[in-house]
Design brief:
Elements (H helix, E strand, L loop, with lengths): L25 H30 L15 H5 L11 H20 L6 H29 L4 H23 L7 H9 L3 H17 L1 H5 L1
Length: about 210
Amino acid sequence: MTTAAVDDRTSNGTQDGPKGATGSGRPLALLLVITGLAGLLASWVITLDKIKLLEDPGFEPGCSLNPVVACGNIMKSEQAEAFGFPNPMLGLVTYAMVVSIGVGLLAGARYRRWFWLGLNAGTLFGVGFCTWLQYQSLYNIGSLCLWCCLAWVATIVMFCYVTTHNIKHRLLPAPKGLRSVLIEFHWLPPVLWIGIIGMLILTRWWTFWTS
């Protein structure tokens, strides 16, 4: 993406509209649709595998490739039902909502400040929950799920760009310097964030990867 992804212009119909509503540029709208679909796909596949696992305890998901990349271990863990039901069921609802919001923006929708802040809060909860799951996966369960990793990446990118959009439009307070840096280097936070997770995964199972 270029700076145009977050530097919304009046010509793109993204500045504050009537009654304080704010839209977005096409790049952000597409990003929400794509990341939402990625998370939705991951949630759907994990849900199907979870159902098969409940029907047959001996079932091995297709993404269980080796002792480290073992989705079955994740699905059988207590952490896989953090709220009393399978985690991907939450993803089926929330990622679908993100896709709907992105499609609305592509159609020219404008949302009020409370809506954008609500979306920001939702993505913040998402990355917080994903961070907890990452820790549990790496250091307690001791396995990785590739579909979970896809959902992690989608949620991180989603959160970073929604936050950047809200800071750009002053829907979130931020110093002028920070606003300028985020607009110019909007790609840096998600790249660093995902890179750190990659390094943690690499070092956690260094012996396995290098053997």
